[in-house]
Design a protein that fits this description.
Blueprint lengths: L20 E3 L12 E5 L2 E6 L1 E4 L12 E5 L4 E4 L3 E13 L8 E8 L7 E8 L5 E22 L8 E9 L11 E5 L2 E3 L3 E8 L5 E9 L5 E9 L3 E3 L7 E2 L4 E8 L7 E9 L6 E10 L8 H5 L6 E10 L7 E4 L4 E4 L2 H6 L5 E11 L10 E4 L10 E5 L9 E3 L1 H5 L7 E11 L18 E6 L5 E6 L15 E10 L2 E5 L24 E11 L9 H15 L3 E7 L2 H10 L3 E5 L7 E7 L3 E8 L6 H4 L3 E9 L2 E11 L6 H21 L4 E7 L17 H4 L4 E3 L2 H5 L12 E6 H4 L8 E2 L8 H4 L6 E5 L8 H4 L5 E7 L6 E8 L3 E9 L4 E10 L2 E8 L6 E9 L2 E9 L2
Parallel strand pairs: 14-21, 24-26, 28-29, 31-33, 34-35, 40-41
Antiparallel strand pairs: 1-11, 2-3, 3-6, 4-5, 5-11, 6-10, 7-10, 7-11, 8-9, 8-10, 12-13, 12-15, 15-19, 16-18, 16-20, 17-19, 20-21, 22-23, 22-25, 23-24, 25-26, 25-27, 29-30, 29-32, 30-31, 32-33, 34-45, 35-37, 36-37, 38-39, 39-40, 41-43, 42-43, 44-45, 46-47, 47-50, 48-49, 48-51, 51-52
């Protein structure tokens, strides 16, 4: 590698000033409204009647946190002095839950250390969206600032909330009598004659810096000529003839485009009517490097986005997250997003990767607060090249760090461990907050808190085997790689072993789908209504198709169908399925979708029309014959969408409707095979409203019913976003005898990108039934005790997945793949294999999307598993 200048230097300058700051409130969260100080990067702040919040309703200009103020008199106050102030700005808005009722507040300043305060400008009133307030101070000397909440709107009481974010204070500028030029490059002040050194850039690549010119004089500054001598640097636009008023600014970009491996030294010359500096000069130094040469990851991380780099290291995350992969050398860590790389490597592999630097998870409109990774920009024809070196394997051991160290940065992309922390729900933590004790949810954030009260974010990726595992309790050790999303550093455990927990295994997964009756309840958020649900109706439709095909169930009880034509299109797009929709006039209807090879439709109608039932969303029954594995059973399904919302009246309605429905079921359907499915809009353990007794306690307490999904609530799993478990399945005693106990689950929709924003705010919930005794099922009857077929990874997959199995002794075996029609489409192994753990890669690149069966056959018996190919 050839470097012409130290790549770690961004700019060299000779003019310095007291540092301006922007406080984004992203560290050391304060969880309560009581008065207290908090140490932030800018200094110590007092929050009285205020906290630092990260709820969805908290408006944030950047990152995941902002200040939330409540009640008149609440304060956000600097406890430190700023020497000389130019401009003060911040973003403000009404806390979303209170969006219809604004709050009034004012900015105040103190020039004597906080003893006396005076108002700055006029009071402001919050709005439902963030607005920026800008105040010109431009005064020397020590200053402190505070925001004081005056009152709420006259009709709203005094407990409404508002948010403040990104509080910025710039440096004081002394105004001269004559026009005076001042310059900043990427926010750093430059005097005439100083040098701006650009980071090393590969020939053919480019780099951009922002040049700001300010007039610090009373008279207008007129630029007669601005030019760059040399070949590698240029201005994005001409400044010739530009006039800049007093204290005004003009910004252009300086572009660096090297064409050869050499050192570039150019000069920026600005001629103006500044009598003191008629010719303002900044020397521009540019370094270059060969993109094919391996450089340390720490150096690569400091290069601008888009730079082509070659780095090497050892894999710490292969395909556990289905992208990106992570790797590190002895200097730092980095992510790489390239599907071919993810599936080609595993923990400890030595790799060399060449590609452009990118960023993922940054705040929209903000560069630099996401995770740095090697990735191809959207729409680009670039590729990523990589080489795996088997002889260079070295499994990395995690570095022990603290929460404070992780939040301070410096460990992004690296494998770390944090010891002696508790796991909590990711909300505003206060003393006495109950630790999290439930099952980990897919794509959900949790909080880690240490003994000093420091808080960090832990994210459970939906592709890991941590989904559904029970959280450890007490003081624990957490291992994972450090990521970053919208300014917040996260630790991402890779598997159950990183948290020392047991994987949540669902029984009977090896039982073939054609031997069970599988039933699903799914609220598809305002399906087909862009004005209420996901805005991209076509993407929602595509994703719903994918989910239905992946689960491959016999019966779907659906809620919130809001477009009859779209539902019919869904039915028509699913070969082997039929469906029908409830005939009531509600904007959100219930519907059934069923597999014709299993179900013969007999009748449908309302189970009851008593009670309110969501203003007319009456329980909708479907009577049918289901034939599975040669046995027929008559079944009555009842699909409900109960009253929503969290008020006493809503709770009372759910309670009344539940009692009415159960009375009907007790009287008319007690001797029939009956299954109740739907969006209950409440939990079955206790109500989501004020933790009152569940409206469905009548079902839970009656031995003639089995609330199948209560086990999910008991484990702390949630079917509605990440808040509560409100989608349930209940069977009466007749139907419950067929239940394959433990098969109830909340579908892990990892195969759908951005599911909650593109598809639904509810996850599908489903379970399995067998009409025959378990011992009569072929796969179960032949399961030997001396070998095992393990779950493949990933599943669903595209186009490759790893098939894993174990043998207690060497034996002949055949590992085959069959399509859903029973045709053998691939043979992965056919011969004698030794004892131990084995794996084989199944490449389905030439096959179509759908369900396939993996079968492991030996002289002693056979095992099968269902896998899903999603393209």
């Amino acid at each position: 590698m050839r470097l012409t200048l130290a790549a770690s230097l961004l700019f060299i300058f000779t003019l310095t000033a007291h540092a301006q700051f922007t406080e984004s409130f992203e560290t050391n969260a304060k969880g309560g409204y009581g008065a207290g100080t908090v140490e932030l990067p800018s200094g110590t702040w007092l929050l009285d009647g205020a906290l630092i919040g990260n709820l969805t309703a908290d408006l944030k200009q950047s990152g995941a946190w902002s200040v939330r103020m409540r009640a008149g008199g609440a304060r956000l106050e600097m406890q430190f002095n700023k020497d000389g102030v130019g401009e003060v700005s911040f973003w403000y808005g009404t806390y979303s839950t209170d969006a219809a009722r604004p709050s009034e507040f004012k900015l105040q300043k103190s020039t004597n250390g906080g003893v006396n305060w005076v108002d700055v400008g006029h009071p402001l009133t919050t709005t439902a969206t963030l607005q920026q307030a800008v105040f010109q101070i431009n005064a020397p000397g020590n200053h402190r600032f505070r925001i004081v909440k005056i009152t709420d709107s006259p009709t709203s009481g005094n407990q409404l909330r508002m948010n403040i974010d990104d509080f910025r204070v710039t440096n004081y500028v002394q105004v001269a009598e004559n026009p005076t030029i001042a310059a900043e490059v990427n926010g750093a002040a430059f005097a005439s004659g100083s040098t701006a050194a650009f980071d090393a850039t590969a020939p053919g690549q480019s780099r951009t810096a922002s040049l700001l010119i300010r007039n610090t004089g009373n008279q207008s500054l007129v630029i007669s000529n601005a030019s760059i001598t040399g070949t590698a640097f240029s201005l994005s636009e001409s400044l010739n003839g530009v006039s800049i008023a007093s204290l005004a600014t003009r910004t252009v970009n300086i572009r660096y485009n090297p064409t050869a491996l050499t050192t570039y030294i150019d000069t920026l010359r600005i001629q103006s009517n500044d009598p003191a500096t008629p010719l303002f000069i900044v020397r521009l130094n540019g370094a270059t490097f060969d993109a094919s040469d391996v450089i340390p990851i720490s150096q690569a991380r400091g290069l601008p986005l888009g730079t082509l780099v070659t780095v090497s290291g050892w894999i710490t995350v292969g395909n556990e997250f289905e992208g990106p992969s992570y790797f590190q050398d002895d200097t730092a860590g980095l992510a790489a997003f390239w599907p071919a790389l993810h599936t080609a490597v595993q923990d400890g592999d030595s790799v060399v990767v060449t590609g452009p630097l990118g960023e993922f998870g940054n705040t929209p409109g903000i560069v630099g607060d996401g995770i740095r990774q090697i990735a191809v920009p959207s729409g680009s024809t670039q590729t990523i090249q990589f080489t795996v070196h088997p002889t260079g394997r070295r499994v990395q051991q995690p570095k022990t760090i603290t929460i404070a160290q992780m939040n301070a940065g410096g460990y992004e992309g690296q494998l770390v461990e944090i010891e002696n922390v508790g796991i909590f729900p990711y909300v505003n933590l206060q003393p006495g907050t109950t630790p999290f004790t439930g099952a980990f949810q897919q794509n959900t954030n949790y909080a880690l808190r240490d003994g000093a009260g420091n808080v960090a974010q832990m994210r459970i990726d939906n592709n890991t085997n941590l989904v559904g595992a029970s959280s450890p309790t007490g003081s624990v050790r957490v291992v994972g790689v450090v990521g970053r999303f919208r300014g917040v550093y996260q630790i991402l455990p890779r598997s159950a072993s990183d948290l020392d927990v047991d994987v949540f295994d669902i029984p009977f997964e090896n039982v073939s789908k054609d031997k069970t009756f599988d039933a699903v309840t799914w609220n598809i958020e305002w399906f087909g209504s862009a004005g209420n649900g996901p805005t991209d109706v076509e993407l929602q439709f595509t994703n719903v198709l994918r989910v239905i095909r992946t689960i491959d169930a016999d019966l779907y009880a659906l809620q919130e169908i809001s477009n009859n034509a779209q539902f019919q299109r869904l039915v028509d797009s699913l070969a082997g399925y039929r469906g029908f929709i409830a005939p009531y006039s509600q904007a959100q209807k219930t519907a059934y979708l069923y597999k014709t090879s299993t179900i013969d439709s007999l009748n449908a109608g309302y189970a009851t029309t008593s009670g309110q039932w969501g203003g007319g969303r009456f329980p909708f029954f479907f009577l049918f014959n289901a034939t599975v594995d040669g046995r027929r059973e008559r079944i009555r399904a009842i699909n409900i969408h109960a009253k929503a919302f969290a008020t006493q009246a809503d709770y009372d309605e759910r309670l009344s409707d539940s009692q009415i429905l159960k009375g009907v079921m007790d009287e008319l359907y007690a001797t029939q095979n009956t299954v109740l499915l739907g969006d209950f809009n409440d939990d079955v353990t206790f109500s989501t409203f004020n933790r009152l007794p569940s409206p469905y306690a009548n079902f839970v307490q009656d031995p003639n019913y089995k609330v199948i999904t209560k086990s999910l609530s008991d484990r702390g799993q949630t079917s509605y976003s990440s808040f509560s478990n409100i989608d349930h399945i209940v069977a009466n005693a007749n139907m419950a005898r067929f239940l394959l106990d433990g098969t109830e689950r909340i579908e892990n929709v990892s195969y759908v990108g951005n599911y909650l924003s593109t598809t639904s705010d509810h996850f599908p919930v489903w379970t399995r039934f067998s009409f025959k005794d378990l011992v009569s099922l072929d796969e179960q009857a032949t399961i030997p005790a001396d070998f095992d077929l393990l779950p493949n990874y990933p599943n669903p997959f595209n186009p490759t997945t790893r098939i894993r199995w174990t043998l207690d002794a060497g034996r002949p075996m055949r590992l085959s793949i069959f399509d859903i029609l029973g045709r053998e489409v691939a043979v992965l192994v056919d011969g004698v294999m030794p004892a131990g753990s084995h794996q084989a890669v199944f490449d389905a690149g030439n096959l179509g999307s759908g369900i396939y069966i993996v079968r492991l056959s030996t002289p002693e018996g056979s095992l099968s598993r269902r896998i899903a190919l999603v393209k």
